[in-house]
Amino acid sequence: xxxxxxxxxxxxxxxxxxxxxxxxxxxxxxxxxxxxxxxxxxxxxxxxxxxxxxxxxxxxxxxxxxxxxxxxxxxxxxxxxxxxxxxxxxxx
Length: 92
Prior knowledge:
- This protein is mainly beta.
- The chain has one domain (about 5-90).
- The chain contains no helices and seven strands.
- It has strands spanning about 5-10, 20-25, 35-40, 45-55, 70, 75, 80-90.
- The strands form two sheets. It has a four-stranded mixed β-sheet with strand order 3-4-7-6, with no helix packed on it.
- About 10% of the residues are buried.
């Protein structure tokens, strides 16, 4: 969109920093309802995510680039990061 794919990303920051990306993916849908965060403890974070189906006529195998995960860090400054698929398929 807008000349190239949209990227969704999650950044965490400390009081001393402006934020560091820990997760990014190509995501061209307007529905973000499948994404949420849950702090299980001070050092344990779960990121819940879904996928984008930009067109109902697309072939899922051809859509791989539409949902490509570019970054998914498992740890950040002593915080363990888990990822959980909600199996939610958003559409534009």
